[in-house]
Amino acid sequence: MTPSVRVDARAFAKAESVFLAGEAGPVWRVLEGIVRLDRDSGPIRQPVQLALPGDLIGVEALCERRYQFGATAFTACRLERMALDADSLRLPLLQQALLQHQDRSEDMTALRTGSVPQRITHLLCLMGLDWRPDRRALNGEADSIRDALPTLREVAQVVDAKTETVCRALAQLLPPRSRKPGPVRPVRDWSGVAPGRLTTAWAANATPLGAAA
C-alpha cells in the first residue's frame, strides 16, 4: 500500500504568526500567499527567506528537530499542515526542501542587491502581482498592488532598505493612489431669500466666466 500524507489546511491573515523559532511541530506546505521566515536577533527579526506557493516550511521537522526560524504570513496565505504516515515520504520531501532552498536563496539575493526599485520589482513578481517595469500600472491596478503589499516597514526589512527609500521607490514604480471623491456640497435653497438680497448673494457666490472653478 502506498504511504499517504494527511493534510490539514489552515488560513493565516497577513502578519499572523505561523510558528515560532524553538517550537516543535509539523512540516507545512504553502498553498496560497507568501510566508516570511525570520531569525530572531534581539528586539528585531532578520528576514531569512520567503516561502512561495508549493514551498515547504518547518522542514527541520523532517529530521525531528525544532524549528530554527520563526514563520509569519507575509501576505494572507493558506498552508497545508502535513503529518507523515510513513518514513518513506521523508526522502522526497527532503529532496524538495534542498532544491527549494537553492531557488529561494537566489530570490533573497535578488531582493537584497541592486537598486531598491529593482528589488521591489522582483518582490512584486514573486508575489504574482501584475506588474512589469516596462509599463506603468493604471491607477486602479496600482491601488490593488499597494493594498496587496505588507507594511512599508516589512517591505523595507525584506529588501534591506530604509522605509523612506522604499516609499520613494514605490512612488517611482507606481502612480499615486486614486483620490476618493470628496463630499458632495449641498445646494443652497434660495427660495426664501428676498429678491434684493438674492442678487447680492448671487454676485458674492458667482464665478466669473473663464475663471477656474
Description:
- This protein has helices at residues 90-112, 116-126, 139-148, 152-159, 163-173, 195-205, and strands at 5-12, 17-19, 27-32, 35-41, 44-51, 56-57, 70-73, 77-84.
- The protein is α+β, with helices and mostly antiparallel strands and 213 residues long.
- It has two domains: 5-104, Jelly Rolls, CATH 2.60.120; 116-173, no CATH class.
- Strands 1-8-3-6 form a four-stranded antiparallel beta sheet.
- The radius of gyration is 26 Å and the shape is elongated.
Task: Write the SSE topology.
Layout: E1 5-12, E2 17-19, E3 27-32, E4 35-41, E5 44-51, E6 56-57, E7 70-73, E8 77-84, H1 90-112, H2 116-126, H3 139-148, H4 152-159, H5 163-173, H6 195-205
Antiparallel strand pairs: 1-8, 2-7, 3-6, 3-8, 4-5, 4-7
Helix pairs in contact: 1-2, 2-5, 4-5
Name a few traits of the molecule.
6 helices, 4-stranded antiparallel beta sheet, Jelly Rolls, 2 domains, 35% helix, disordered C terminus, 213 residues, elongated
